[in-house]
Write a structure and sequence with these properties.
Length: 364
């Protein structure tokens, strides 16, 4: 599929004032996207679990404008839990500019975007994946009202395509429980333009896979994702890293198909540490882990050695730790988290989540 497919071919029928709404979850990458080119295209294929509890709920109210806005300008207001957030507006404006050719009605309406996150604002959890995917879905739901029916499959593809233009990882939040993004020979139908549900076969042990997010550092991100991805541009190890990620996709295909938990633990931890190793060896360099991140990692390793349970960690571009484990081991591992890991979290806070189905429409 090429980008042309996402440009509407027929005129829209006008729409009176109305409202649409979607909720969309965050996702946690197992194979990391780190490095991009062109217009939000990834340098390597990535794969994530779509989450369930960590999500953004967005409603989009629209009313037709008497006169169309001039090119590159839009009429919208952004609210977080009913409070106006002018500082969110430049990012949304940039998003609108990027997607206007695919949704040419954007300059003909005034929009009120009202958004809320299920996770606390000060949790250090990035809201761009859930937030941008929820907004992309709302806009597409609105477009749906103006055109003749199209397939559900196309709707989800276009939603993911648009979400990607807001934030790369957002394209993996539309569906679930496992989504890949990037063109890979052994992932049929995969694309760099949008996320694709993983169809390689997933053993039952990976269903409802648990992700307990340990809130080590709840402050603002030290390195923005744009700065972070740019660091891969003249990184001395970049090419090897991109090739490694593609090989990891093949390994993950085998792991999912065969329920290979041991392989999963080792692959996922290697990916997390490679992401951080890239940041530690770029120019400028960053250490985004904190002392408590390392204490948690060491505790997980000790616990795994003692009990033989398949628990592992992954990291985003920050200090928080995602603890991943099968549903069947939930009781024992949650007990370990409460008794031995919670002390390393800010105010003992952590969030329990699991791999889920993806986004959901709120209003028809
Ligand atoms: C470390 O999707 O936030 O979480 O495309 O610039 O919005 P932009 O970047 P973003 O990057 C996420 C990077 C990551 C790894 C991942 O989710 O794959």
């Amino acid at each position: 599929m090429s980008i042309e497919e996402f440009v509407p071919k027929t005129a829209y029928s006008p729409l009176p004032a109305g409202k649409v709404g979607y909720e969309s979850p965050s996702n946690i990458a197992l194979i990391k996207y780190w490095g991009k080119h062109g217009e939000q295209l990834p340098k390597n294929t990535s794969v994530s679990f779509t989450l369930t509890n960590c999500k953004t709920t967005t409603t989009l109210s629209y009313s037709p404008l008497e006169t169309e806005k001039p090119e590159g300008s839009f009429d919208f207001e952004v609210y977080l839990e009913n409070e106006r957030k002018p500082d969110f507006e430049p990012k949304i404006g940039q998003f609108f500019t990027r997607i206007e050719q695919y949704l040419p009605f954007l300059r003909n309406y005034k929009f009120i975007i009202n958004t809320s996150n299920s996770f606390p604002h000060s949790s250090g959890i990035a809201s761009s994946a859930s937030g941008m995917s929820a907004l992309a879905l709302c806009l597409l739901q609105m477009e749906q009202k103006m055109i003749t029916a199209r397939s559900e499959e196309f709707f989800l593809k276009k939603a993911s395509f648009l979400a990607r233009l807001g934030s790369g990882s957002a394209c993996r939040s539309i569906s679930g429980p496992v989504v890949s993004w990037g063109e890979h020979n052994n992932l049929p139908g995969s694309s760099a333009l949008y996320g694709t549900p993983f169809i390689g076969g997933i053993a039952p042990v990976f269903e409802g896979f648990q992700d307990t997010i340990l809130l080590v550092d709840t402050g603002k991100k030290e390195v923005s994702s744009t700065v972070g991805h740019n660091l891969m541009n003249d990184h001395p190890y970049a090419e090897n890293r991109f090739q490694q990620a593609e090989k990891h996709i093949d390994q993950l295909l085998y792991i999912f198909k065969n329920g290979d938990l041991e392989g999963f633990v080792s692959l996922v931890e290697q990916e997390a540490l490679t992401l951080h190793a890239m940041m530690m060896t770029s120019k400028p360099y960053f250490i985004l882990m904190k002392e408590n991140t390392l204490s948690i990692i060491n505790k997980i390793w000790e616990f795994r050695k003692e009990t033989g349970l398949p628990v592992c960690f992954t990291l985003d571009a920050g200090a928080n730790v995602h603890v991943l484990y099968p549903e069947k081991d939930k009781q024992e591992i949650l007990k370990f988290i409460k008794e031995e890991l919670a002390i390393f979290c800010q105010n003992g806070r952590y969030i329990s989540d699991f791999a889920g189905k993806g986004s959901k429409a709120l209003l028809k």
